[in-house]
Design brief:
The complex is a heterodimer of chains A (164) and B (72).
Chain A (H helix, E strand, L loop, with lengths): L4 H15 L32 E7 L4 H17 L3 E7 L4 H10 L5 E4 L4 H6 L6 E5 L5 E6 L4 H15 L1
Parallel strand pairs in A: 1-2, 2-3
Antiparallel strand pairs in A: 1-4, 4-5
Chain B lengths: L1 H18 L22 H15 L16
The chains are: A alpha/beta (164), B mainly alpha (72).
């Protein structure tokens, strides 16, 4: 087929528009990236090996995130050492995160991905997004958004299935 | 003439294809701001609706994408 340069140009523009929205996101079955390599602000738990881990990506400007925090805190208290919750904040300004945490104090680990490097690798579809990893560090469950009591019940049944 | 038309089309596509910013869900901080909401002032919204309805015989159609948290 004899294609003119203009047609090629038009095709390239269309393809660029189409594929710029596609991104490789962390999905069920994938392995938890090594969190220590992303220069996160805050102290990470010493070891995640062999533990059920819930990693939650959140932002201070996200209303469902504020609703999810008391539930995550309740889960942390309920399961204690058996469950590790790491909430990864994606705010560009640390002050916004700190203001949020004063309003919504929690007992689990909160770190900040200020450079948004980890979140770019994980590429969550919405805020908040949470991943539940099994003891081998594989994503077993994925939650896009937080839908109140429905999500809370799902968290409990999924965590208990992994703790068996 | 044909080449000019194709060139115009290709240029338009190029501008459309490259002119759109792709905001990731975790980059919506400014879009999630209260001031980015088109309906943040109910009185102003009601006045605008009244003007459009009475002057232009149109109403509704205010659902414009782009702003907001985009959460959940």
């Amino acid at each position: 087929m004899n294609t003119s340069p203009f047609k090629k140009l038009a095709l390239a523009a269309l393809l660029a528009g189409t594929f710029s929205t596609a991104h490789a996101a962390l999905k069920v079955g994938d392995t938890l990236p090594d969190l220590t390599t992303f220069k996160l602000d805050g102290k990470l738990p010493d070891s995640l090996k062999g533990k059920v881990v819930l990693v939650d990506f959140w932002a201070s400007w996200c209303l469902p995130c504020a609703k999810s925090f008391p539930v995550l805190d309740e889960l942390q208290k309920k399961y204690g050492d058996k469950l590790v919750i790491v909430a990864v904040n994606v705010d560009e300004k640390a002050a916004n995160m700190e203001t949020f945490l004063k309003k919504h104090p929690v007992g689990f680990t909160v770190v900040r991905d200020g450079q948004q490097k980890l979140v770019a690798v994980v590429s969550p579809e919405t805020m908040p997004t949470s991943f539940i990893f099994d003891g081998e560090g594989k994503v077993r469950f994925l939650h896009n958004g937080f839908h109140g009591e429905d999500t809370r019940k799902e968290y409990i049944s999924e965590i208990e299935s992994l703790l068996k | 003439m044909k080449n000019k038309m194709i060139f115009a089309l290709a240029s338009t596509l190029l501008i459309i294809g490259t002119g759109c910013a792709n905001v990731k869900p975790w980059q919506r901080e400014h879009l999630a701001d209260y001031t980015m909401r088109g309906d943040r002032d109910p009185l102003s919204t009601a006045q605008s609706e009244h003007i459009w309805f009475s002057r232009e015989e149109a109403s509704g159609g205010r659902g414009v994408g782009g702003g907001g948290c985009g959460c959940n």
